Amino acid sequence: MNRTSTTTDPQDHFEITALISGFFRALDERRFDEGWADAYVTDDLRTTTPLGVAEGAEAVRDMEEAVGRFAATLHLSSDVLVRAEPGARTADVSWNAHMTHVHHDSTLRMRGEGAEPLFTVGGVYEGRLRRTDGGWRVSRMAVRAVWTTGQPPVLPADTAARVRELTGADAPVGPA
């Protein structure tokens, strides 16, 4: 993220912060009707997560699939920092996130007695936003986990293999 000193228009900061909050709320409420992501992201969205890099419609499907691995999620964003010249068409943005994921009962049964019901992540997002005719939209978004508690989700075998390839870590494998 560009660390140079710039002056961000307060209205842009407000709109970008509201966009980030609305995006997480849509994820948590599973509002995935056709075209839901158009209100938050550009068609050429590029995401970088611990599962890899995805672009466009694949990135949106990956987000839907990721939250679907859990019975419920709650994403909290804070400390939104916006770097953009007034009137700019793009903005560099970062924010902290506290992400709580509630495992499905089936996951807990599979893991057995004493399985932890929550998987929690504290992370930092870095993004690039673009001003469109419809307002600000995310065009690039990367998340980096700073810490985790609990067990990650059980993944389909192909996704677990991708995690192992990208990170060297073994992920719990379950039915596809």
Mean pLDDT, as a whole number? 89
Instruction: Give the biggest beta sheet.
Output: 6 strands, mixed
Any idea what the shape is? elongated
Structural class: alpha+beta
* Strand tally: 6
Strand order of the largest sheet: 2-1-6-5-4-3
- Please indicate the percent range of residues in DSSP E strands (runs of 2 or more): 35-45%
Order of helices and strands: HEEHEEHEEH
**What does the oligomeric state look like here?**
single chain
Rg over alpha carbons: 17 Å
Please give the alpha-carbon distance between the first and last residues: 37 Å
What share of residues is helical?
Answer: 25-40%
Number of helices: 4
User: Low-confidence stretches at least 5 residues in length (pLDDT < 50)?
Assistant: none
Could you please describe the fold and organization of this structure?
29% of the residues lie in helices and 40% in strands. It is built from four helices and six strands. The mean pLDDT is 89. The protein has 176 residues and is an alpha+beta fold. Strands 2-1-6-5-4-3 form a six-stranded mixed beta sheet.
